[in-house]
């Protein structure tokens, strides 16, 4: 297995296992979970599904990765999302059991002929975490491109379901963080580097300073120093991004980072999927508890997808 293949595998499993850890307690409050914290892969709970069942977060991640095993094509990505929602493509156990409102509306628009790139709402009220949770495979396609091209491609892929600038910036920050991990940088070094690079780049695009200011806790402060009660874990894209970076910076391995994300409560599967993607990349597949990997639905299919994506991306580079 090449190092590049290993990185892709680490990212895909990182997302899916974080997601599966959170599914059984999704929507539970932090206070409720605190009475019986999640310490291992469990099942049933919110959706009454077996341990290792991943949700829409991973399914859509895999749909994007699947599309990228071919030449880059926004239409193909959009159609894969339609096939997931309407035909159960890349579902864990043959059924869709969770989908966000904005994501569902965008997918239905695509199904009725809307061009994928313009299907996502650009309304400020449509800033759920639905594009952030699935964006990670795009890293492997854009990693060697200049920053403006990385941004433009990422913006189009986010906008399939979430087109507002806040969702776009969130995806951009996340992929830039992941890219620096790929380059072998240390997480706090990355955090500090992005505090200069991201604002400078966004300023060069003349993006509204008001929108950039929403990211001040990441771009100006040290989010790792905030107390847990200051970190929100709802489905709002900015909460998900902040929570995942906070978990990553405060924990020093995959297991603890993803469990911390789950135990924050509320949108547990997505917070842990987003955290898990970065933690998988940072620490590597071999650091993910083996019993979690063994319980994961469709693990052989995910392994195969990682291999096919690595082959395609290897050809591209």
UniProtKB/TrEMBL annotation:
Species annotation: Kaistella flava
Pfam families cross-referenced by the UniProt entry: ADP_ribosyl_GH (PF03747)
Family: Belongs to the ADP-ribosylglycohydrolase family.
Cofactors named for this entry: Mg(2+)
Acetylation listed as a keyword: no
Residues involved in Mg(2+) binding: 55-57, 267, 269-270
Source organism, top-level taxon: Bacteria
Alphabetical keyword list: Hydrolase, Magnesium, Metal-binding
Name this protein carries in UniProt: ADP-ribosylglycohydrolase family protein
InterPro entries, per the entry: ADP-ribosylglycohydrolase, Ribosyl_crysJ1, Ribosyl_crysJ1_sf
Annotated cofactor note: Binds 2 magnesium ions per subunit.
Statement: the UniProt record of this protein carries the keyword Magnesium: yes
Transmembrane stretches, start-end: none
Matches recorded under Gene3D superfamilies: ADP-ribosylation/Crystallin J1
Single GO MF descriptor: hydrolase activity
């Amino acid at each position: 297995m090449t190092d590049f293949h290993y990185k892709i595998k680490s990212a895909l499993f990182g997302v899916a296992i974080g997601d599966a850890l959170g599914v059984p307690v999704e929507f539970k409050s932090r206070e409720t979970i605190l009475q019986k914290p999640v310490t291992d892969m469990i099942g049933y709970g919110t959706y009454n599904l077996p341990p290792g069942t991943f949700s829409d977060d991973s399914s859509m991640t895999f749909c994007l990765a699947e599309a990228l095993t071919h030449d880059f094509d926004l239409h193909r990505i959009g159609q894969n999302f339609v096939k997931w929602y309407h035909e159960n493509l890349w579902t864990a156990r043959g059924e869709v059991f969770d989908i966000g409102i904005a994501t569902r509306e965008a997918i239905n628009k695509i199904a009725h002929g809307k061009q994928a790139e313009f299907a996502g709402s650009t309304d400020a009220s449509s800033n759920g975490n639905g594009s952030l949770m699935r964006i990670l495979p795009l890293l492997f396609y854009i990693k060697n491109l200049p920053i403006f091209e990385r941004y433009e491609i990422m913006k189009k892929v986010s906008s399939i379901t979430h087109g507002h600038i806040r969702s776009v910036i969130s995806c951009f920050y996340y992929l830039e963080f992941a890219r620096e991990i790929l380059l072998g940088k240390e997480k706090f070094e990355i955090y500090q580097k992005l505090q200069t690079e991201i604002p400078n780049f966004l300023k060069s695009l003349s993006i509204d300073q008001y929108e950039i200011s929403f990211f001040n806790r990441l771009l100006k402060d040290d989010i790792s120093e905030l107390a847990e009660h200051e970190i929100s874990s709802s489905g709002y894209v900015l909460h998900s991004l902040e929570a995942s970076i906070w978990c990553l910076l405060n924990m020093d391995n995959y297991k603890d980072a993803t469990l911390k994300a789950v135990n924050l409560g509320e949108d547990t599967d997505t917070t842990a999927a987003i955290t898990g993607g970065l933690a998988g990349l940072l620490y590597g597949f071999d650091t993910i508890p083996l019993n979690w990997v063994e319980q994961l639905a469709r693990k052989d299919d995910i392994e195969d997808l990682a291999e096919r994506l690595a082959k395609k991306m290897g050809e591209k580079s």
